[in-house]
Specification:
By secondary structure, the protein is an alpha/beta fold. About 30% of the residues lie in helices and about 30% in strands. The strands form 3 sheets. It has a 7-stranded mixed beta sheet with strand order 3-2-1-4-5-11-10, with helices on both faces. The chain has a two-stranded antiparallel ribbon with strand order 6-7. A two-stranded antiparallel sheet has the order 8-9. Helix 6 (about 120-130) packs parallel to helix 8.
Length: about 250
C-alpha cells in the first residue's frame, strides 16, 4: 500500500494538535449537524470509510450498533483508534476505500467523514457502497465543499495588512487533482463539482434525502478564534442518500 500522508510523522503530529483531534466529535464544527442526519443506530451494521481516530465508530457503538467496521489507509490513525476503542463489536482494517471489499448487503449504514475528497475514483466508491448496503440502507457522508476545493490552495486572499479579503474560487468545472496546503504541508486532494457528487449517487440508484452545507455552531463561533470567518464561504458538504429497493 502506498504511504499515506497521515503516516508521515511531521504531518501526523500537526494533525494530532487540531481541535477535532484533541476533543473528538465535540471539536468538529459540523458534528452538531451530522449527528442529526444519522439513522437509528441501535442494532445496525455500520461501515465507516476513512475512519481516522475512530470517533464515529465509537459513537455508533455507544449508541448500540451491533457491529462497526472502520476502514482507513493510515497505520498511525488506526493505532490511535484501536487504543481509544473499548467495544468488542468495533473492528478496524487498514485499507483504502477504493480497494476494500465486502459481500453484497453487508451493512445497514455506510458513513464517511471528510475523506471522499482524497479519493480519485468517486464513481467507483459510490458503486461499492451501493453493493455493500442492504436495500433501504443509508449512505451518509461529509466532504470538503466544491467551493473550498476548486481553486486548490484552500487559503484566503489577504490584504496588505494581513486582513482577509476574500476566498478565491477558480477552475470550478475542471475536476481532478489539486495540491492543497493543509497544516503547512502539501496534500493531494480531488476536486469535483456539486453536480458530480449528486449525479453519481443518482446514477448508482441512490435516492437523495438531505443536502446540507453546515455552519459552525454558535458555541464554536464564540469560543474558537477565527471560526466566524467560516460563515464567509462553505467549507463542508453533507449528503444523506438511501439505497432504493426496500
Amino acid at each position: 500500500m502506498k504511504e499515506n500522508k497521515y503516516d508521515q510523522q511531521a504531518f501526523f503530529d500537526k494533525y494530532s494538535q487540531m481541535e477535532r483531534s484533541r476533543k473528538g466529535l465535540a471539536g468538529a464544527g459540523e458534528w452538531h449537524v451530522l449527528k442529526e442526519l444519522l439513522p437509528g443506530l441501535p442494532g445496525i451494521r455500520m461501515l465507516d470509510l476513512g475512519c481516522g481516530y475512530g470517533w464515529h465508530c465509537i459513537y455508533a457503538a455507544e449508541q448500540g450498533a451491533a457491529s462497526v467496521v472502520g476502514i482507513d489507509p493510515s497505520r498511525k490513525m488506526l493505532q490511535v483508534a484501536r487504543e481509544k476503542t473499548h467495544f468488542p463489536q468495533v473492528s478496524y482494517i487498514q485499507e483504502t476505500m477504493e480497494n476494500v471489499e465486502f459481500p453484497p448487503e453487508s451493512f445497514d449504514l455506510v458513513f464517511s467523514s471528510l475523506a471522499l475528497h482524497y479519493v480519485e475514483d468517486y464513481r467507483g466508491v459510490v458503486e461499492k457502497v451501493w453493493r455493500f448496503l442492504r436495500p433501504g440502507g443509508s449512505f451518509l457522508f461529509s466532504a470538503e465543499h466544491p467551493v473550498f476545493t476548486a481553486q486548490g490552495s484552500q487559503d484566503w486572499e489577504y490584504g496588505p495588512g494581513g486582513e482577509i479579503r476574500h476566498f478565491p474560487v477558480d477552475r470550478y468545472y475542471i475536476e481532478g487533482w489539486r495540491e492543497a496546503n493543509f497544516l503547512g504541508e502539501k496534500v493531494v486532494k480531488y476536486h469535483r463539482t456539486l453536480t458530480t457528487y449528486l449525479e453519481e449517487l443518482r446514477r448508482a440508484g441512490f435516492q437523495l434525502e438531505r443536502l446540507v452545507e453546515p455552519q459552525p455552531s454558535q458555541e464554536m463561533m464564540e469560543s474558537v478564534p477565527g471560526m466566524r470567518d467560516e460563515l464567509r464561504r462553505p467549507m463542508m458538504l453533507i449528503v444523506s442518500a438511501r439505497k432504493q429497493g426496500e
